[in-house]
Structure formats: structure tokens, C-alpha cells
Specification:
Layout: E1 18-21, E2 24-27, H1 35-54, H2 59-71, E3 89-90, E4 96-100, H3 108-111, H4 119-130, E5 151-155, H5 168-182, E6 189-193, H6 195-205, E7 217-219, E8 225-229, H7 234-239, H8 244-255
Parallel strand pairs: 4-5, 4-6, 6-8
Antiparallel strand pairs: 1-2, 3-5, 7-8
Helix pairs in contact: 4-8, 5-6
């Protein structure tokens, strides 16, 4: 198959395009920022999004997400639910990645945008706005003007699962998308929202994960910093396990490539 990359990017693995850290594959240097390369990266993410939206690989998840979209919650009875796998959201030229668990049944499964229309998103986007990453502190619907600068949102599982609990085989099926996304470029840092995302990102990067904790940082040999945070779920925020200052601190670590401010 012909190499369609710009000529200055056509290098063998031994010449410096990639480096292996253990068994993990990453860009050895900062990815090229020329217009041709950036267009290629944006097109690649757009292509992944098209595949994700069309995906019907997991029968249990397809059945559930579509059932929820048909029956709806009473408070959203007049809305048309998305009812499909939820694509990546954010800045397609970003160098920083956020990985959550899965769409909420009446949140992203309704609105079609990650962390949009639920309490978890209220917490996350307010924190990202305080940090200067989001242009507004709220995320209500897909056409509300929200934009991210320098950050892209991904998920461990792109379909809403029953009880917010995807099965291991469903996470494995969805991991192909995350693997392809992670290997598109060298990410400066990856923020993992919750222990499942922490484990899955490390597995995808082919490195052994340290114990998960809020504020945990694992700096890979490639230079990518993997940062852990408790998930901004109602279970965590209502009980005080995760507070606004705690979430702000984790985001600052992520923005600082794992280094304290």
C-alpha cells in the first residue's frame, strides 16, 4: 500500500518516526505541525468518528442504547435522543487527551456529545473552563457553542451501558478505536477519569499501570504523562469523594504534563 503521508514524514521506524518504550509505540518527537500533517490527523479522527457512530459491534449495548432512546426519560420526552455510539469531542489538533468511562443513558446517549446533558459534564466542563480549556462552563446540548482548546475527549466505551457498567468484552471491542487514536500522535498528557479508564489506557499503551489513585501520575519514557482522577460521577461528587479543588488539581497536573504547578 502506498504511503500517503507528506514526503517529510515518510521515514522508517528505525529512522526516528516512532520509538518503542518497552512494548509501547509512540511518536519519538513532537508530531509535525505543518498544514498537511495537521489535515491528515484531523481527517483521521473524523474517520474514526464516522466508524464509531456506525458501530453495532456489541449487541447488548446496541439494544440498550436504542431502548433508552425510544422510551426516554419523562423530563426529556419531547427530545429526539441520539441513541448511537458517541464520537470523540474537542480539538482535533489537540496534544492532550481526556478518557472517561462511557456515555450516560440520558446524557451523551441523548445529546450525542460526550459529557453533555448530565451532572458529570456539569462538573467536568466547569473545571475545564476554570482551567482555560473550555470556552464556557456548561454543556447542555450539542449545538450550545461549547468548544475545547488543546484537548480531545475519548471514552473507554462509546455506547451507554446498562447500569453504567460495560462488560470486559465490550471494553475490549471498543478498545480498537482508542488504540488507533492514541497512536495517531504523541500525546503530551492523558487524563484518566476513573480506575477503569486508568487501567485501559495503560493496557492500550502496553505498559504496566501503577496503582490508581486521584492525582496519580505515570510518566512514560515517550514523555506522555498519564494522570489519574476520580470520575466526576454523582456517586463521587455527592459524597465528597471528589471535590472541585481536587478535580482542579488533577486538571492542572494534566495541563502541566504531570508536574505540579
Amino acid at each position: 500500500m502506498a504511503d500517503t503521508r507528506p514526503s517529510h514524514m515518510r521515514q522508517s521506524r528505525s529512522s526516528g518516526s516512532y520509538s518503542y518504550t518497552g512494548t509501547s509505540l509512540f511518536y519519538a518527537t513532537e508530531p509535525c505541525r505543518c498544514s498537511a500533517c495537521q489535515t491528515r490527523l484531523v481527517d483521521s479522527i473524523s474517520g474514526l468518528n464516522s466508524e464509531i457512530i456506525a458501530c453495532r459491534a456489541c449487541p447488548r449495548l446496541v439494544e440498550w442504547r436504542e431502548l433508552v432512546a425510544r422510551e426516554k426519560r419523562r423530563s426529556f420526552a419531547d427530545e429526539e435522543y441520539w441513541g448511537k455510539a458517541v464520537p470523540y469531542f474537542g480539538d482535533f489538533e489537540a496534544s492532550r487527551l481526556i478518557v472517561g468511562l462511557a456515555p450516560a443513558a440520558h446524557g451523551a446517549n441523548r445529546t450525542g456529545r460526550m459529557f453533555t446533558g448530565d451532572r458529570s459534564g456539569d462538573w467536568l466542563f466547569a473545571a475545564l473552563h476554570r482551567a482555560g480549556v473550555a470556552n464556557q462552563p456548561t454543556s447542555v446540548h450539542a449545538a450550545d457553542g461549547l468548544a475545547l482548546k488543546g484537548a480531545l475527549m475519548a471514552a473507554t466505551c462509546h455506547c451507554a451501558p446498562p447500569d453504567n457498567k460495560p462488560l470486559p468484552e465490550e471494553i475490549a471491542a471498543c478498545n480498537d478505536y482508542l488504540t488507533r487514536l492514541i497512536h495517531l500522535r504523541r500525546w503530551s498528557s492523558i487524563l484518566c477519569l476513573g480506575g477503569i479508564a486508568w487501567l485501559n489506557v495503560h493496557k492500550t499503551c502496553r505498559v504496566k499501570p501503577p496503582k490508581f489513585s486521584h492525582g496519580a501520575v505515570h510518566l512514560l519514557e515517550s514523555g506522555t504523562a498519564i494522570v489519574g482522577s476520580y470520575h466526576p460521577s454523582q456517586q463521587n461528587t455527592f459524597t465528597g469523594r471528589l471535590t472541585e479543588p481536587m478535580l482542579d488539581a488533577a486538571i492542572l497536573l494534566w495541563l502541566g504534563d504531570g508536574k505540579p504547578d
